[in-house]
Amino acid sequence: MAKLSAAQYGKDNIRVYKVNRNEQTGVQDVVEMTVCVLLQGDLETSYTQADNSVVVATDTMKNTVYVMARQHPVTPPELFGAIVATHFVETYSHIHHAQVKIVTHRWTRMTVDGKPHPHSFIRDGAETRNVEAVANEGNGIDIRSAIAGLLVLKSTGSDFRGFIRDEYTTLPEVDDRILSTEVDCGWTWENLKTVKDVEATVPMFDEAWSNSRDITLQTFAKDESASVQNTMYKMCEQILAAVPMVKAVDYSLPNKHYFEIGLKNTGEDVEVYAPQSDPNGLIQCTVTR
């Protein structure tokens, strides 16, 4: 006999743009997000009996996000995600779990004539600030913050030696190589009981993002890397030390390879590399206290 073992549904790719205007100074601040809402609860009959009476329409979820964005601050995204997730659990008695994912896209203020421009911005990279906020009925709010799409490269300061060699190994050991990756770094906060607790933590969210980003970049640049594994572990250790309310740090780092092309009879000492799109190494870890 068939049994519904798990189910969730929601609205994905909700595009939100909010502008805050300071009428006195003329300075405007902008935030652009992509939001996903997923709900779990007593939904079985909607799947098994075509009973839509338990369904919160996904269009309603979209509208709720827009209304919440108008009524509440959207920064930091951890707070906005907690507000939206808690709304669904508190509003609908049969919804016991609401997950809100937020991707905040970069808009960096332009510098024009040597001064910050009051209302012009540039997207200076694909890096995003991500948040996942989950409201669990009776179990508070769980939040994971993240950096994603941060592309970094260093042209030296990395080697890779001493790995297992067998009949399938062709990779040579190297004492100097290009190291490049696209950073996906996340940090999970201690459980927060209510939205008020999240509000009390607001000053820490931006600070943690800034610290985690700085630690990632500085460690990447300064570490004489013996492996991606060891370098990412050092990053995790430092973030845990810098942010006491964080209980776990995770990294996912694809190894973007650059293979050397040997050029002969050029009369010059030239190093030319071919960037490789795939296949690529993928190194991941989670470090806890």
Topology diagram in text:
Elements: E1 9-21, E2 28-41, H1 44-48, H2 58-71, H3 77-91, E3 95-105, E4 108-112, E5 115-122, E6 128-136, E7 141-154, E8 179-189, H4 195-222, H5 228-242, E9 246-255, E10 258-261, E11 272-275, E12 281-288
Antiparallel strand pairs: 1-2, 2-3, 3-6, 4-5, 6-7, 7-8, 8-9, 9-12, 10-11
Helix pairs in contact: 3-4, 4-5
Short overview:
With 289 residues, the protein is an alpha+beta fold. Helix content is 27%, strand content 38%.
**What would the principal axes of the Cα set say about the shape?**
globular
Beta fraction:
35-45%
How confident overall, as mean pLDDT?
96
Order of helices and strands: EEHHHEEEEEEHHEEEE
Helix content: 25-40%
- Strand numbers in spatial order across the main sheet: 1-2-3-6-7-8-9-12
Largest sheet: 8 strands, antiparallel
Q: How many DSSP helices?
A: 5
User: Structural class, judged by helices and strands?
Assistant: alpha+beta
The separation of the N and C termini measures: 44 Å
Overall radius of gyration: 23 Å
Question: Using DSSP, what is the number of strands?
Answer: 12
Which segments are poorly predicted (pLDDT under 50) over 5 or more consecutive residues?
none
